[in-house]
Amino acid sequence: MIIRGHHLLCMLGFKGLGYDEEFIKNMDKIVKKLKNDGDVFIKLVDNVDNICEQCPNNFSGVCKNEHHKDSIKEMDDAVLESIHIKPGESMKYSEIMANIKLFMTEDIMNGICRNCNWKEYGYCVDGLKNLR
Ligand code: SF4
Residues 37-63, buried b or exposed e (16+ Cβ, 10 A)? Predict the structure, then answer.
């Protein structure tokens, strides 16, 4: 499976919201699969991933989400750097989660996600808190 850095945080707080029905169905499937099987190997990237696959903002493999003020690639890189993983690395989902628990903090997350439209719901930060 391929997952971009910032989606690791989105997945923590996923509560069935998303851009459209197809997007939600796909993300729900991915989140459930990873929740049930920490042995799944993930390649971490800073571009489109398996969640973007069904996104209406994905145009030929490029994210054209105009509501995002920040560079999404920079958000991916910032998340991965914070949890000590390099773009292109592959590892088990359970190992990634262990790094998130160890290195990701609410402050770091609030900084990286400061301009995200979904932030106001508070779901992602709640997801991080629930890991502890
Ligand atoms: S908005 Fe962009 S980064 Fe987010 S899922 Fe869609 S294509 Fe991927």
Answer: eeeeebebbbebbbbbebbebbeeeeb
Ligand 1 atom with the smallest distance to the CA of 49 is: 8
pLDDT digits (tens, 9 = 90+) for 28-71: 999 999 999 999 999 999 999 999 999 999 999 989 887 666 68
Q: Is 47 in the pocket of ligand 1 (CB under 6 A)?
A: no
Would the CB of 30 count as within 6 Å of ligand 1? Answer: no
Instruction: Give me the pLDDT at residue 69, please.
Output: 60
Quick one: tokens of 64? 């054209």
Chain segment 93-102, per-residue pLDDT in tens: 999 999 999 9
User: H or E stretch including 23?
Assistant: helix 21-36
* Lookup result for tokens 């989606």: 7
The β-bridge relationship of strands 58-59 and 62-63 is: antiparallel
* Atom 2, ligand 1: residue with shortest CA distance: 63
* 117 pocket-lining for ligand 1 (C-beta < 6 Å): no
Confirm or reject: Cβ of 90 under 6 Å from ligand 1: no
